[in-house]
Amino acid sequence: MLVSYPVASVFLGLLAVHAGGPIHPGAILWGSLYGLSQAIGVWWFYAAMSSGPISVVSPLAAVLNAAVPIAVGVALGERPGETASVGVVLAMIAVFLVGRESPDDEDVRTHRFTRRVAWLTVGAGVAFGLDFVLLHQAPVECRLWPLFFARASASVLVFAVAAATGNFQLPTKTPLRLAMTAAALDTFANVAMLMALHAWLLSLASMLISLYPAATVVLAMVVLRERVTRWQATGMVLAMVAVAMITAS
To answer: So which residues are the signal peptide here (predicted)?
Structure first.
């Protein structure tokens, strides 16, 4: 994060200048809030996974990540069609299943789901869900500027936390190259997410974006040769069905 966040800020700043658009106070406000929410969510999520069972933390946070923007979208008056609504329900089940680890995993036996882990998990899931809501509020005419202010504010927070906790040490060699690659992927993903949220309903766009764990599982299978549990395989099938139903609406 010490490398990828500031590098992504530079990338997004260059893209924002190229895309043009005014810098309204709304772009600074909503973009900065989105960046801080995302950074805090990542921080709490990593803390929860390091102390508790990943098989519980990951799917619970993922479901909250998907549920929060859907609830806000409906509260704001969005009414997805019947097909899309069924797809959303299937997608939430898919998110839960894809993020579920094997119950026989060593992590479940050595890490307990304590009250502290529970609060960290809920906080991370809600923070991730608020990301979509906050970014959706950014002025469309400002184009990519909200993303720049998001990564800039998140970088300030990450640097402050690293300095305060004595973790201000940059990686070298392979970890550094991977962090630079992550910054480029993060830039592309944020631009795509902003365009989707501005072009579609908050409830539907955020739900499709929340299915990203399926891509992580596929990459883990192909690159890391990891084995997929039956629950994860079922979740991936449900995810494909859900995507078809939501996009067909």
So the answer is: none
Closest by CA to 103, choosing from 93, 113, 94, is: 113
Output the CA–CA distances (angstroms, integers) from residue 190 to 8, 22, 56, 129, in the order listed.
10, 19, 27, 15
Residue type, 10: V
Burial of 214 (0-12, 13-18, 19+ CB in 10 A): buried
Write the burial class of residue 212 (CB in 10 Å: 0-12 exposed, 13-18 middle, 19+ buried). Answer: middle
Amino acid at 249: S
Q: What is the rounded CA–CA span in Å between residue 12 and residue 135?
A: 15
Sequence-distant (6+) residues with CB within 8 A of 1 are 39, 42, 158
Looking at residue 58, its pLDDT comes to 79
State the Rg of the chain over Cα: 18
Contact yes or no for 121/52 (Cβ under 8 A) = yes
Structure confidence at residue 230 as a pLDDT band (50, 70, 90):
confident
Report how far residue 209's alpha carbon sits from residue 199's, in angstroms, rounded to the nearest whole number: 13
Cα distance between residue 32 and residue 145, in whole Å: 10
Burial status of residue 147 (CB atoms within 10 A of its CB: 0-12, 13-18, 19 or more): buried
Q: Which two tokens stand for residue 174?
A: 């392979």
pLDDT in tens, 123-161: 999 999 999 999 999 999 999 999 999 999 999 999 998
Question: Amino acid identity, residue 21?
Answer: G
Q: What is the pLDDT of residues 41-83, one digit of tens each?
A: 988 988 888 888 777 787 788 888 888 998 899 898 888 888 8
